[in-house]
Design goal:
10 helices, Rossmann fold, globular, alpha/beta
Length: 385
C-alpha cells in the first residue's frame, strides 16, 4: 500500500515453510520484518544467522526467487486504507502464503486483537499522515493519526509485551529537526518542527521515548530523510514531477526551487530498518540518510535529462514556479554516522541510479495511476494560503 495514514507491519515467526522472496514489499525470507517508505516498497531478505543482508531483485525485476529457510516470518500488512493506499502495490503478494493483509487502523480496538492473535515478533510502525501540504490545509487529521492513534498503539503494545517478546520500530522523519542551514543534524539535535506534520511526528517521537522510559517498552525510533522510489503516491515531489513529464504538463515548483532535501532510495531505507530490527539498541534513536542533498531545481533537471534519454519526452515541459507554502523549511540534512558506525549500515544506491530506476518504473507501470483519484494526482493543495 502506501506509507500514508495507518499502515503498520508486523512480522510473526513461523517454521518449516517456503517463501517467494521477490516482491514489491520488503519480503524477508528469514529472521526479519518488512517496511514501506514514502509509499514505496522494497524486497529484502536476511540470512538465518541474522547478520548478512541479502537484497533481492527490485520490484520492477520480473524474476521471482524461492528460498527455503528453517525460520521465516508471516508478514501482516495492517492498513486503514485511505486515499493514498493502492492495492496495485501489493498485487503480487496474493499468492504468498506468508503474507496477509488486514484492513485496520492502529487506533482501532481490533489492532490489539490482531496482536494477541498473531503474536508478532516485531512491529514496524509506518502509520502516519505524511504530506506537509495536507497538514497545512487540515492539521486535525495529522493530530489524530500521528499522535492520538499512536498513543492507542502504544497502549496496546504496552499490554502485549507484558507476556510476549516483541520489538516496536517507530519510523519518523528528519523534518522534526527543522531548518538545518549549515552542517547536519545528529540524534542529539533539539527538535524544532515547522509544519503541523513535522510537529505531529515530533510529538509521536517524544511519546515513544516516554513509554520506553516510563513503561520500559522495547521500542526504537528512526528518523529518515526524503524517500523516493517506485510506487510512491504522486502527491510527493518526485512522482508528481514524473507524472507531469509523462503527460507533458508544467512542473510545479515552490518559490525559487532552492529548497534542499536529502534524498534516499527506498531500498536503502528498508535495509536500514532491517539493521535496526536486528542490531538496534532499545530506547535509541537512529538517523537514516544518504548524505546527498539536492534542491528542487536540481531534481527537475535530473528528471528532464532522464526523460529525454529514455522516452524522448519532456523537451517542451516547462518549470512553473508557484507561491511557496507557509513555513517552508529551506534545508534538511542528517548526520547518519551513528547507524553507519554502530549497526554497519550504509546507503548503496546513488541518486542518479535511483532516480533512473524510479522514472523507468512509472513509465512502465502507467496502470498504477488508474487506482488513484485523478483529483489527488493533479490537484494542488494550499488553495487557502
Amino acid at each position: 500500500m502506501s506509507r500514508v495514514d495507518h499502515c503498520a507491519h508486523c512480522c510473526v515467526e513461523r517454521h518449516g515453510e517456503s517463501a517467494a522472496a521477490s516482491s514489491p514489499v520488503s519480503y524477508p525470507t528469514s529472521n526479519a520484518g518488512f517496511a514501506a517508505c514514502g509509499g514505496s516498497f522494497e524486497s529484502i531478505s536476511v540470512s538465518t544467522d541474522g547478520a548478512t543482508l541479502q537484497p533481492h531483485p527490485p520490484p520492477w525485476d520480473s524474476s521471482v526467487r524461492r528460498t527455503r529457510s528453517p525460520s521465516i516470518f508471516l508478514f501482516l500488512n495492517v492498513d486503514k486504507v485511505t486515499y493514498s493506499s493502492n492495492f496495485y502495490n501489493v498485487r503480487e503478494l496474493k499468492s504468498f502464503k506468508n503474507y496477509k493483509f488486514i484492513k485496520c487502523s492502529i487506533g482501532d480496538k481490533k489492532f490489539h486483537q490482531i496482536l494477541n492473535k498473531y503474536k508478532p515478533s516485531c512491529i514496524f510502525n509506518l502509520a502516519a499522515e505524511t504530506h506537509v501540504d495536507r497538514s497545512i490545509d487540515n492539521p486535525s487529521n495529522f493530530i489524530n493519526s500521528n499522535i492520538v492513534d499512536l498513543y492507542k498503539l502504544l497502549e496496546s503494545f504496552k499490554k502485549f509485551v507484558k507476556n510476549h517478546k516483541c520489538k516496536l520500530i517507530h519510523i519518523s522523519t528528519d523534518e522534526v529537526y527543522g531548518d538545518i542551514l549549515k552542517g547536519r543534524s545528529n540524534e542529539n539535535f533539539p527538535y524544532s518542527p515547522s509544519s503541523p506534520y513535522a510537529a505531529s511526528k515530533a510529538a509521536s517521537d517524544h511519546l515513544v521515548r516516554s513509554y520506553v522510559r516510563t513503561y520500559k517498552i522495547p521500542a526504537i525510533v528512526t528518523n529518515c530523510s526524503n524517500n523516493y522510489g517506485p510506487k510512491q503516491h504522486p502527491e510527493k515531489l518526485i512522482p508528481k514531477l514524473i507524472y507531469n513529464i509523462l503527460n507533458n504538463k508544467p512542473l510545479p515548483i515552490y518559490g525559487k526551487g532552492t529548497n534542499s532535501r536529502e534524498w534516499i532510495f527506498v531500498k536503502d531505507h528498508c535495509e536500514a530498518l532491517i539493521k535496526v530490527f536486528l542490531k538496534g539498541k532499545i530506547g535509541e534513536f537512529y538517523n537514516i540518510g544518504s548524505n546527498k542533498n539536492l534542491n528542487n531545481l536540481q531534481v527537475c533537471s535530473q528528471l528532464l535529462a532522464i526523460s529525454e534519454k529514455i522516452v524522448k519526452v519532456g523537451k517542451n515541459v516547462k518549470i512553473n514556479f508557484v507561491k511557496d507554502r507557509p513555513g517552508h523549511d529551506i534545508r534538511y540534512a542528517l548526520n547518519s554516522n551513528k547507524i553507519i558506525k554502530k549497526l554497519g549500515w550504509k546507503p548503496k544506491v546513488n541518486f542518479l541510479e535511483g532516480i533512473k530506476l524510479t522514472f523507468e518504473w512509472y513509465y512502465k507501470n502507467k496502470s498504477y495511476y488508474k487506482n488513484l483519484s485523478r483529483r489527488d494526482i493533479v490537484k494542488r493543495l494550499g488553495r487557502s494560503w
